[in-house]
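From the methods appendix. Each design record in this collection lists the tokenized structure first, followed by the designed amino acid sequence. Records were kept in a plain field format so they could be parsed without special tools. The example shown here is representative of the layout used throughout.

RECORD:
FOLD TOKENS (369 positions):
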């Protein structure tokens, strides 16, 4: 097995000022989305509400845009200005931070299982997946490959990731929700090839033996691949891959594999914290508005798949190719030809975590720490 360089991000905490503290694995950033005091005075000079959203690595750009739109909407509806503070990092690590005292009014994490960690700490009421539409998942994503211009290693599908000449970049499933989706998408591919469980484990073991950097979060993995030029392929959230095309035109290409997984990020009000802060109504509206047409357009423009079908259909790409070399000029980017499984195929998150990601489970057995 190849020697691995494991880079784990520092644990992020929110201080009184929620100042940014960054590394490859994740960061905490502050995004002020407050309207002018004169507007508040016209509405009765109501006191400003402060709301904290703890999210995962690749949502920085999405929530920077959404928070501004939501602040305007909220003040128009209620007369109160609102300021939203963001915290980003590996989803699993973020969940543990909230469970251990990071005071989030809402969480918008990479998967239901990470929100469940917060619920298990007694901070979120039972039934959080039913509080908002579509299992409290206002947008979805999937896992694709990001390769360098010209795809020099000719990486076209998951089986190419177990070749001896391929270096893979992916985050650590022990700290990153996106990395769990990566692992499960690969598992599904090898299962579809007719492999039995012991054969799938061997294939996954070979894939992770090719991992040259195991970052703590998705944004750190992107940095390792794009900025530090490590590896031949990045297993990436779809939106992360498109942001790389946008930021580095002509340098990278997206390869859409034959199969992948429907990633369903989950949102929830952190009930105990919202009650303490008196922000229950604002927190619920903040998450509810993610389903509005205005927000769904922002999600699509940030390369997340909208849950509103009519809006989603506007962004469907018409192509037979599985390679995307640039941001389409017409704004259509969703590849509908990829076959997607979902977490139900793995028995839901409780079963998937126990079998694959818990201490001593499959991932620990195939990856030498």
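DESIGN:
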């Amino acid at each position: 097995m190849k020697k691995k360089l494991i880079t784990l991000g520092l644990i992020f905490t929110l201080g009184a000022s929620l100042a940014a503290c960054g590394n490859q694995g994740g960061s905490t950033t502050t995004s002020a989305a407050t309207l002018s005091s004169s507007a508040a005075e016209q509405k009765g000079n109501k006191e400003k509400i402060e709301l904290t959203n703890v999210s995962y690595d690749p949502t920085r750009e999405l929530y920077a845009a959404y928070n501004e739109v939501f602040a305007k909407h909220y003040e128009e509806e209620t007369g109160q200005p609102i300021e939203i503070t963001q915290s980003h990092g590996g989803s699993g690590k973020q969940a543990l931070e909230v469970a251990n005292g990071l005071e989030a009014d809402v969480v918008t994490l990479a998967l239901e299982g990470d929100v469940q960690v917060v619920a298990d700490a007694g901070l979120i009421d039972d039934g959080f997946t039913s509080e908002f539409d579509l299992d409290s998942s206002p947008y979805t994503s999937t896992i694709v490959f990001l390769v360098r211009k010209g795809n020099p290693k000719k990486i076209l599908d998951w089986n190419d990731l177990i070749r001896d000449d391929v270096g893979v970049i992916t985050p650590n499933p022990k700290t990153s929700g996106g990395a769990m989706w990566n692992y499960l998408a690969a598992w599904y591919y090898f299962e579809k090839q007719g492999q039995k469980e012991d054969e799938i484990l061997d294939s996954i073991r070979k894939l992770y033996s090719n991992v040259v950097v195991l970052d703590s979060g998705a944004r750190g993995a992107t940095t390792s691949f794009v900025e530090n030029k490590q590896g031949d392929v990045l297993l990436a959230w779809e939106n992360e891959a498109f942001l790389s095309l946008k930021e580095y035109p002509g340098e990278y290409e997206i390869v859409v594999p034959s199969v992948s997984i429907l990633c369903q990020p989950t949102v929830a009000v952190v009930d105990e914290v919202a009650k303490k802060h008196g922000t229950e109504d604002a927190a619920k509206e903040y998450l509810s508005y993610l389903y509005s047409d205005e927000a769904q357009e922002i999600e699509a423009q940030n390369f997340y798949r909208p849950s509103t079908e009519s809006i989603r259909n506007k962004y469907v790409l018409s192509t037979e190719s599985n390679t995307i070399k640039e941001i389409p000029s017409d704004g259509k980017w969703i590849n509908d030809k990829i076959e997607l499984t979902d977490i139900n195929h793995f028995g839901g998150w409780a079963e998937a975590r126990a079998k694959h990601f818990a201490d001593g489970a499959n991932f620990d057995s195939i990856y030498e720490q």
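APPENDIX NOTE: The first strand starts at residue 5 and ends at 6.
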